[in-house]
Design brief:
- It is built from 4 helices and 4 strands.
- The protein is an alpha+beta fold.
- It has one domain.
- Strand 1 and strand 2 form a beta hairpin.
- The longest helix has about 45 residues.
- It starts with a helix and ends in a 19-residue tail after the last strand.
Length: about 190
């Protein structure tokens, strides 16, 4: 009987047992907070990248027509903003568009897509924005808006544990700075309407 009482009072292995019970929960909390932080960081970088790309298109100078190489350079700049996140292959998709209002209604003047991104159309304007509210729709208006949408496929660095991936999308709207509309090689005659 005294041996049984001694076993009940013996607490030499109690800390090890408590540690073994709490360790999985603590690891789950640590990995979960790390994953959440990485996901928020990726989204913030994507937002900055979209704003930078829209701003670079909007900064097109007078008497300049954006060429395909210019869109490649702007895309490379957007990728640099996302550093250190990987952007190779089709992880990053970018859609560029310009909306003009010269006809009295919103018209997609030009659009181009990188890495098979979904084209921006009047039916799928990002962020449920109304094209009518983005610009002046009076006939003969010289108003225009640049729209850039980035889609990023984020994969967890802990794929062996969490196996989670997310598709993040962010858009940015900007007005041309130095002219009414940004002409590109995609416009007929390289001029805006």
């Amino acid at each position: 009987m005294t041996q049984r009482t001694n076993l009940r009072r013996d607490s030499s292995g109690l800390a090890a047992i408590e540690f073994a019970l709490i360790l999985p929960i603590m690891l789950l909390l640590f990995l979960g907070s790390f994953e959440t932080t990485n996901l928020v960081l990726a989204y913030m970088k994507l937002e900055a990248s979209a704003e930078a790309a829209a701003d670079l298109v909007a900064q097109t100078r007078v008497n300049t027509v954006l060429q395909s190489t210019d869109f490649t350079n702007i895309t490379n700049a957007a990728k640099q903003v996302l550093t250190p996140l990987p952007t190779s292959g089709t992880l990053l998709k970018i859609a560029y568009a310009s909306v003009t209002y010269s006809t009295g209604t919103a018209v997609i003047d030009w659009h181009t897509e990188i890495n098979s991104a979904t084209a921006i159309t009047t039916a799928n304007v990002p962020n449920n924005a109304s094209l009518a509210n983005l610009g002046n729709q009076t006939n003969g208006s010289t108003d225009s808006v640049i729209i850039v949408t980035l889609t990023y496929s984020y994969t967890s660095p802990f794929t062996y544990l969490l196996n989670s991936s997310y598709t993040l999308t962010e858009s940015a709207f900007n007005r041309p700075r130095y002219m009414n509309c940004v002409p590109t090689y995609l416009n007929s005659g390289n001029v805006c309407p």
